């Protein structure tokens, strides 16, 4: 993995985590929290999208996939905490 790919992956995670935090909670989780949630969301979203037969291309598609996955992750985490 090149440095550019790593930076892009972390940036997508940061954006997706922040967006999911805004949608699910009303605020973000801090820089590292948003990044972690977005990275987990990227894996969850990729898995879910693959299950239902959707694909995403380009930066915007990756951000959408990671955001959807992060929202799913936060929803499940909220259910477990309750």
Automatic annotation (TrEMBL):
One of its GO terms (cellular component) is plasma membrane. The chain crosses the membrane at residues 6-24, 31-52, 58-80. The keyword Chloroplast does not apply. It is found in: Cell membrane. This is Membrane protein. The keyword Transit peptide does not apply. Belongs to the UPF0410 family. It holds the Pfam family Transgly_assoc. Keywords: Cell membrane, Membrane, Transmembrane, Transmembrane helix. InterPro entries: Transgly_assoc. It is a multi-pass membrane protein. Its main location: membrane.
